Amino acid sequence: MSAPESNGQRTKGWEKLDTVVKGVGALLVSAAITFYGVNRDAKQAEIAERNRKAQVLVQTLSSRETATADMRAKMFTTLVEHYFENTADASTRVVILEMIGHNFGDHLYLRPLFQRLDARLSAKGSDQRPALREAAHDIAQSQLRQIVGSGGEVCSLELSVGETRTSPCIQPVLLTLRAVTGDGALVTAEPGQPEGFEVSWFEMPLSSHGMLGELEYTLLLSETAPEAGRARVQVVRLPLNQYSPDNRLRMDQLIADLTVEDF
């Protein structure tokens, strides 16, 4: 075979190979584009489905919260109406207060209601006073479990009249027992409340007695011995992110701080 013929066949071979390569390349490009399109559509469909599920979840939770809030509002209104009915007897009022405490105690300062009812029961010589104290105790213990579960702390402390002590829960606050009766104790706190505050059988842990910086605490009465001049209390340190019902100003300050940080 002459050289020109050999070169011609070689050229044709390269042309065929070039045609095959271009064809394969075109197929690969087409397949890649198709795969990308299908994959993109699948991802978009997946994202759309996730968004749909998220919207359904948000709507469901919102509807549930609205229904729960409506139910609680109706329940609260009904309980209060029955409590203030003239026909309600002592035992009924005790039960109603207990229901209010268990269901709304984290939003309401209940001590005045309990103390007012206790005073009325005492004046009438009613046998429902122990039941009222037991109801307050049950509510307080329920709140204590919430507080401890959220990072709070509870310590027991025994005080004698005139004695000043601190508790591991609220160091460096110093507590002094000034007076004790069968119905409660008068305690002063330094620093913070040197004028003193009363601790009765109807304290609720979520209603604070004192603050020192970020430290917020309350005292619960466990035992009184007036004849011996002693009282035992539970010292409750609230979690740092807990805001008691009587501390609206602190909540307003938190909202203001967040607003400043956002803008």
List the helices and strands and how they pair.
Elements: H1 3-83, H2 90-104, H3 111-124, H4 129-149, E1 153-160, E2 164-166, E3 174-181, E4 184-190, E5 193-200, E6 210-212, E7 215-225, E8 230-237, H5 248-262
Antiparallel strand pairs: 1-8, 2-3, 3-4, 4-5, 6-7, 7-8
Helix pairs in contact: 1-2, 2-3, 2-4
Verbal overview:
The protein is α+β, with helices and mostly antiparallel strands and 263 residues long. It has two domains: 83 residues; 167 residues, no CATH class. Helix 1 runs antiparallel to helix 2. The longest helix is centred in the first third of the chain and has 81 residues.
Number of E-type strands:
8
Q: Give the helix proportion (percent range).
A: 55-70%
How far do the termini sit from each other? 87 Å
Oligomer: single chain
**Low-pLDDT runs:** none
Number of helices: 5
Order of helices and strands: HHHHEEEEEEEEH
User: If you compute it from the alpha carbons, what radius of gyration comes out, rounded to the nearest whole angstrom?
Assistant: 36 Å
Structural class, please? alpha+beta
Classify the beta-strand content into a percent band: 15-25%
Task: Give the domain tally.
Answer: 2
Q: Could you give a short description of this structure?
A:
The protein has 263 residues and is α+β, with helices and mostly antiparallel strands. 56% of the residues lie in helices and 21% in strands. The protein folds into 2 domains: 1-83; 84-250, no CATH class.
